Amino acid sequence: MTLYLILATVFAVATLTAVVQSRRLSYAMPLYFLLAWLIGELAFIHLAWQMLLALLVILVGGLESSAGRWGLVLFAGSWLGLLYLHLQSMDSASVLERALRDVLGDNYRGDIPLQRQGVMRSSIQSSEWLRPFSMVRPGVKVTRDISYGEHGKRNLLDVYQPQAPREGGFPILLQVHGGGWMIGEKQQQALPLMYHMAQRGWLCVACNYRLSPKDTFPAHIVDVKKTIAWIREHAAEFGGNPEFLAITGGSAGGHLSALAALTPNRTDWQPGFEEVDTSVAAAVPFYGVYDFLDRDNIRGSMSMEDMLAKHVMKCRPAENEALWDEGSPISQVHAGAPPMFVLHGTHDSLVWVEEGRSFVNALRNVSDQVVAYAELPGAQHAFEVFHSVRTDHTVNAVTEFLEWCYARR
Q1: Active-site residue list
Q2: Which domain holds residue 34?
Q3: What is the pLDDT of residues 9-39, one digit of tens each?
Q4: Residue 312 carries which DSSP code?
Q5: What are phi and psi of 244, to 5 degrees?
Q6: Any idea what DSSP says for residue 185?
Q7: Tens of pLDDT along 244-287?
Q8: Which of 19, 110, 225, 374 has its Cα between 20 and 30 A from that of 35?
Q9: What backbone torsions phi and psi does residue 216 show, to the nearest 5 degrees?
């Protein structure tokens, strides 16, 4: 029973990390994030196996020992926390619905063609979250490792192609992976969203891009724009309609997708393809970094400046403030920005929610288009990487937003 007590202690602490919000743990932050992320998004699954284990311990007489009894007490505390987390995730649907209604109007679904509404609703009651790591869906063909540039593996992309035709061709969604501008692969992130969208008649493209410290900013955004250029030229070969291209991404990908959406046709970031239209029709950045300069002093002692200066920008703000400013989406907001749906978790310990709020406020002050914003209670960084209750509600909401943008376009 000693092992049972140890296990109970570990998971009671792990559940606590997901319930509480903590952001100033210095070197312990990666461990805290990992525990909070995996417990928070898989709360019901953890609740189920912990209760089954407790039942087994009771059946074999484990409660006859003090270790067994204390283990059960600790697990019971964990169960209360896990139930709270699961109910909190279920509430994501109402949070997302309010975010869309606030800017699109109460009858926003009425702007979407009836046949598309039926396709979207077909998965609203989905139980995908019970199979969190099962990504592949029927009706989607994936073509991998297509070259779009001269930088080898870092200039490859994948295409998620619907097998059922769509009148007018498939609208297109470009996914940009995260990883702190230093790690990450195109096939690792946003798979629930891409398979969902592709199954419902969207052509999805996921790209690699050059990474730091080998490459210095703005190489990352140049490659994202080069991917857009490839889509403009080649999407029709996969049935895509390049006249409607939306972009999304999380973390560093949230930064790059927002930056790409706000800086169309910037020639110095389009070397060799200056004449290509790199504008996008809509953007959905997840938990992005929107201000390299942290001009509102949101992060304080937890500043990203040292990491960015050493590995990504290769200079300090004092040495080239213009570059740091130009690389910040919050500095690029303007009246002609495309419609945006910005998402962030309240408990994000890596990129704080205040950064999302600041970006949205700046964008709403100037943009002529809609700016939807959802703060998901309890959500950690990277919350939508695999299926969970929160992920699947979010995927449905993003689908509705993009279908609305496509219908209005």
Answers
A1: 251, 348, 381
A2: 2-89
A3: 999 999 999 999 888 787 788 899 999 999 9
A4: I
A5: -125, 110
A6: -
A7: 999 999 999 999 999 999 999 999 999 999 999 999 999 999 99
A8: 374
A9: -105, 145
